[in-house]
Amino acid sequence: MLNRVILIGRMTRDPELKYIPSGTAVTTFTLAINRRFNKEQTDFIDIVVWRQSAEFCANYGSKGRLTVVEGRLQVRTYETKEGQKRKVAEVVAEDVRFLDKGGSGSGSGSGQVAARKDDQWDDLGSEVRLEDIDMVNSNEEDEIPF
User: Fold this and answer.
1) Based on C-alpha coordinates, what's the Rg of the chain?
2) Tens digit of pLDDT for each residue in 4-47?
């Protein structure tokens, strides 16, 4: 079985950081995602992020940031103060990345996203030069390099 969600959208508001009684950080925000074929229709998806990723999102995320979320879909029920049962669907994020430089986040004076060592998205949209591409040398006995 598989429960995997990958979303790209814009944050509709600044992320809200809270700490549960055990001291674990949890951040919530909503992504607005335009439908592929009908730009006038938008889906608003609730996102929940835990622990260090929650603090990262709270520090560097802000309203309007173009964001990638990878995680799993969770459906849960709860009861309101009035005793009504409610059901909510949300994405529990395992990885959150920002695709734009964004404005100033709540914890970032410069607005720059903290660079991760293994960040595969950090050069997204940058210009590629021919000198930067590793070419396969065809003079090495014509072996396939893998």
Assistant:
1) 20
2) 999 999 999 999 999 999 999 999 999 999 887 766 788 999 99
Token pair of 142 as six digits: 């014509």
Q: CA 26 to CA 46: how far, in whole Å?
A: 13
- Tell how strand 66-79 and strand 42-50 pair up: unpaired
| Distance of alpha carbon 62 from alpha carbon 16, whole angstroms | 10
Smallest Cα–Cα separation from 66: which of 24, 7, 126? 7
Fold for domain 5-132?
A: OB fold (Dihydrolipoamide Acetyltransferase, E2P) (2.40.50)
Do 22 and 34 contact (CB within 8 A), yes or no?
Answer: no
CA atoms of 41 and 128, how far apart (whole Å): 34
Q: At a CB cut-off of 8 Å and minimum separation 6, what does 76 contact?
A: 87, 88, 90
